[in-house]
Amino acid sequence: MKAIQSAALSVVLAAGLAGCTDSGPAPGPQQQGPTVEPAPGVPSSAGPVTLRGQFQSQGAVTTGTVTIHITQAGAVLRLENLATGAGDDLRLMLSPGVLVPGTGGGAGLSSAKLIELGPLTGAGQRVEMDAARWAALREPIRSVVIYDCAGKAAVGTANLQED
Questions:
Q1: Which letter does DSSP use for residue 17 in this model?
Q2: What residue ranges of the chain have pLDDT lower than 70?
Q3: pLDDT at site 123
């Protein structure tokens, strides 16, 4: 329970300190050369990758699905049939963490890192990320989070699985 509470507090603190903005890729030199691995989630020459997930409720009843289709050109995130509670400033976030159950029945993310994609605009929202933006993500994306920046709380999370 304490680990989940600590993880949830870390998510709230990280998002609050970040001001709910995408800080972009970390500054510093970019590695180049033939030994560099492809960015997480970038498909190999074998073809595109599709990630899917069902939203689970956290701070509000949240339902719907998310799909991320990843190709060499970038990634396209689509929300389908999304329904969630009201919030003053709902944002769409990516996370390398996953939603894990707590001992007290609550749930929290296994990582405090959140990468903002922008405001939540609707049940059928579509977000396109070019190859450079997707490649700038330094860790694999394992979940999509609906986050209320005003309330500093996750309202729903979808853990992603490869199709």
A1: H
A2: 1-46, 103
A3: 86
What pLDDT is attached to residue 60? 92
Nearest-CA neighbor of 145 among 115, 124, 104, 105?
A: 115
Q: Which of the 8 DSSP states describes residue 28?
A: S
Q: Give all strands (DSSP E) within 36-86, no chain letters.
A: 49-57, 63-71, 74-83
The tokens describing 158, both together, are 């979808």
Buried b / exposed e along 115-145 (16+ C-beta atoms within 10 A): bbbeebeeeebebebeeebbbbbeeebbbbb
Chain centroid, CA 53 distance in Å? 11
Rounded CA separation 60/63 (Å) = 10
Task: Please report which helix (H) or strand (E) contains residue 7, including its range.
Answer: helix 2-18
- Predicted confidence at residue 45, as pLDDT, reads 53
Cβ proximity of 67 and 78 under 8 Å: yes
Residue 13: which region, alpha, beta or left (left: phi > 0; alpha: psi -120 to 50)?
alpha
Task: Report the relative pairing of strands 143-148 and 90-95 from DSSP bridges.
Answer: antiparallel
According to DSSP, the residues that pair with 154 across neighbouring strands are 147
